[in-house]
Amino acid sequence: MVERHPILNVVSHLVLGLGVLIIAFPLYVTFVASTQTADAIVQTPMSLLPGSHMVENYVQAWRGGGDGAGSTAPVGRMMTVSLISALVIAIGKIAISLLSAFAIVYFRFPFRQFFFWAIFVTLMLPVEVRIGPTYKVVADLGMLNTYAGLTVPLIASATATFLFRQFFLTVPDELVEAARIDGAGPLRFFKDVLLPLSTTSIAALFVIQFIYGWNQYLWPLLVTTNENMYPVVMGIKRMISGGDAANEWNIVMATAVLAMIPPALVVILMQRWFVKGLVDTEK
């Protein structure tokens, strides 16, 4: 048992405060840069006080059409693409993983364990390894520059399948027997028993998978060539072109701040469910 001591409390709070400063300072600099003019940012040293062009910069970033050398696509459109992609990826991963884990745990069929381990082994094959053949399939199906091309190859999740399988194995057999006695079929048991018990796990995985989908860069870089289908993370990179003088860094930083808002809101709004889903032991 760890003893409480005033000195240890002070030290721990100092360490936590230092960690917060290290993490928050780059975010603060990004916000300050997003409120200044492009000329003020490239000056040395840059002012660490917010400027007076915040509304102007954010409106220009949201609507697009700047004067920079890179992409000037509207951030509003890019964030819509990112939002749709992240939601489809998160919901798709959870839905497929729930059904696959349910089949592996509660159905008896030949080579059941083989199929589970085949799914699990795919954890050793990240997108970067299979990106060539995956792109070939997507291109042959005409899915370039589409939401399907952005999301379908990223929907399957061996990690979520494994986590749901481990959870389903902890569900008492008495619940299964009670459902059979009541005349509930497999899908009824899945909907009325397993899904309510899995709520916290689903919420925790949704937060993780939403951020995973929102932060995608490599795959969208390959399957999108139309500015209307750029996700916001890729759009930020496309906005940077040439030297410092050729970029509107104030618009780039405003875009970066806007890109951080949706995942931050998801974490904040679902924090209680997210933490409970990771540490809950009363399952």
Q: Mind explaining what this structure looks like?
A:
By secondary structure, the protein is an all-alpha fold. 68% of the residues lie in helices and 0% in strands. The chain is built from 15 helices and no strands. It is globular. The model has no long low-confidence stretch (mean pLDDT 85).
Topology:
Layout: H1 6-33, H2 38-42, H3 54-63, H4 75-106, H5 112-121, H6 131-140, H7 147-151, H8 158-169, H9 173-181, H10 186-197, H11 199-214, H12 218-223, H13 232-239, H14 249-269, H15 271-279
Notable traits:
single chain, 283 residues, mainly alpha, MetI-like fold, 15 helices, 68% helix, 0% strand
**Structural class of the helices, strands and pairings?**
mainly alpha
CATH architecture classification name of the domain at 76-233 and 262-279: Orthogonal Bundle
Element pattern in H and E = HHHHHHHHHHHHHHH
CATH topology of the domain at 76-233 and 262-279, by name, is MetI-like fold
User: What would the average pLDDT be, to the nearest integer?
Assistant: 85
Q: Count of helical segments?
A: 15
Uncertain residue ranges: none
End-to-end C-alpha gap: 26 Å
CATH class of the domain at 76-233 and 262-279: Mainly Alpha
Total strand segments: 0
CATH homology superfamily of the domain at 76-233 and 262-279: MetI-like
